[in-house]
Amino acid sequence: MRNRDRKRGEELLRRIAAFEKTQRPLPGISNAAARRALVEQMVESIRRNEYIAVIRARGCSESRLDPASPIFDPIRAAILNAKSGNLDEAFWLTFLFVHFGKHRRSGYRLVQDVYGGLGGVRWSWPKVSADPFGFRHWLDRNEAGIKIRGGKFGNHRKYQSLSAWKPAGTGAAVESYVKWVVTKGGHERLVSGVEAKYGGDRRRVFHDLYLRMSTVVSFGRTARFDFLTMVGKLGLANIEPPYAYMQGATGPLEGARLLFGHPGLPAGKAEHEVVALEKDLGVGMQVMEDSLCNWQKSPSLFIPFRG
Asked: Do 280 and 288 contact (CB within 8 A), yes or no?
């Protein structure tokens, strides 16, 4: 562990001890190995979040924008679009990144093939927002060819369907996303309208958008959380999660139950407990959600989980 990470870990251990002294015990980390494993997961999650800030600060090759390029990257492409003032395209690329994910072997191949139209006309935001039904027809004609090229959905989306017409498939997801945004006048107007409602309170804005996004097909609890947290990290909107959104969660909820020593802990109570702990730790709710999910997979030994 690097010196900076070691110092972070030591500070987290200190804050956890203070929380246990003033608030409540944490039975799931009563032994030193479990405590170290959880803290290391938190430090790992903090580093992943900071990496987005690092690549935002760096210059990116224009090739990152091109889905035909071997170094295409939807996140870096979103950053480049945001820097040039094209926020609609930046949001759209972020949506595609979350919808398809990054597969540990095929990488961004699936995003590249769909966004790049298999080398044809690019499905940019202006094109897809003007003709989402046309996108579904294109996807229907090309689904077999896309699959042959070997692109796979990422881990968080491994049960997602590429289908153009299935009720919960990619076609329905894209069309419902377009409808959600276009009916509000575009991404900027959608976000600014919510910001005005809450006076710019970034946590309340996040929560409102999280609830509104339930209209997007196949974007359940995890996808909405991943999308909106990435929107915040990319600086596309000034938002941050107020909760870990335990309702409907699996890994994070199991992590909270293990940590607080209550196997049957209801999601609502788990949420309350996690919010209280985060308030003392100060790591942010995305780190809490991510680290609890990963820690419960290996509670006594730190293993980095990615993808």
From this structure: no
| Average predicted confidence (pLDDT) for the chain | 96
- Note the pLDDT of residue 156: 87
CB 285 within 8 A of CB 243: yes
Beta-bridge partner residues of 103: 107
C-alpha–C-alpha distance, residues 123 and 92, integer Å: 10
Q: How many CB atoms lie within 10 A of CB 1?
A: 12
Backbone phi, psi, residue 107, to 5°: 60, -130
pLDDT of 1 reads 63
Tokens of 172: 């329905």
What are the structural domain ranges in the chain?
Answer: 3-54+243-295, 61-233
Nearest Cα neighbor of 125 from 78, 92, 85 is 92
Distance CA 176, CA 213 (A): 10
Query: Could you give the maximum distance between any two Cα atoms of the chain, in Å?
Result: 62
DSSP letters along 131-186, please?
A: -HHHHHHHHHHHHHHHHHTT----GGGTT-B--SSSTTBHHHHHHHHHHHHHTTTS
Q: Please, is 84 exposed, middle or buried when counting C-beta atoms within 10 Å of its C-beta (0-12, 13-18, 19+)? A: exposed
Radius of gyration over every alpha carbon of the chain, rounded to an integer in angstroms:
20
Angle at 210 between CA 204 and CA 216, to 5 degrees: 155
Per the CB < 8 A criterion, the answer to whether 220 and 160 are in contact is no
Spatial distance between the Cα atoms of 82 and 59, rounded to a whole number of angstroms: 13
> Is-above-0.85 flag for pTM?
yes
